[in-house]
Write a structure and sequence with these properties.
The chain contains eight helices and seven strands, in the order H-H-E-H-E-H-E-E-H-E-H-H-E-H-E. The protein is α/β, with parallel strands linked by helices and 236 residues long. The protein has a single domain, classed as 3-Layer(aba) Sandwich (Rossmann fold), CATH 3.40.50.
Length: 236
Amino acid sequence: MNNTYTDMLAKLKIGSAHPGGLALTKKIIDKIKHYPHETILDAGCGTGATIAYLAEHTDSTLIGIDQHSQMIDHAMKRLAGIENAEVILADMSTIPIEANHVNCVIAESSVSFTNILNTLNEFNRILQNNGIIYLVEMTAIKPLTDQEREAFCSFYGFDSVYTKNDWIEAIRKAEFTILEAERVAPETKGAIDLEIEPGIDPSYFKMMAEHYHLIEQLQDKLGTYIYIAQKRNNKV
């Protein structure tokens, strides 16, 4: 069975893998805290780095979901003893949370790995009216060739690479109002949070090298955007 990009992240215990890392997360949380955030979902929580930071800086009830069992194991160890946080092994296509339950959804470089519109609709379902979503996502800023698109999607397991307009259209289709759609400065970088244990299969390091090669090769055509949007209040 071939290992995937997310297998590599899990095996190397890479936290805050999204561009900008935890430093970018901190900046966005400073914005989100001005909205109701009593209950926050971290969708694609990985090793739990974002939840751990939130637990230190908010009194929110924190829920993390990830479809990778090894990521959940890492997150549970990181968050042990934090009473207001829990993590659940779950897919974003069917989030095991009741409707209208959370105030805020954070998804950092995770929605692109799913059926994007289905996931955004799930976020809408679990959010209270006027709830907030915060997305950090890779975005095409120039057209990719067919070969480039195929190589990129194949490596990461994406269905497609969205442009800024594609993201905005999908977010609006899922009945959200766009509050911000801002490009992250290309020079914004975050420290790599990883843990390398003895005996790790060398193929994971090869995969990491391929990841950086793809990003460098397409650096003029891909950027990272922050999308913040609010669920529309449909009450009459």
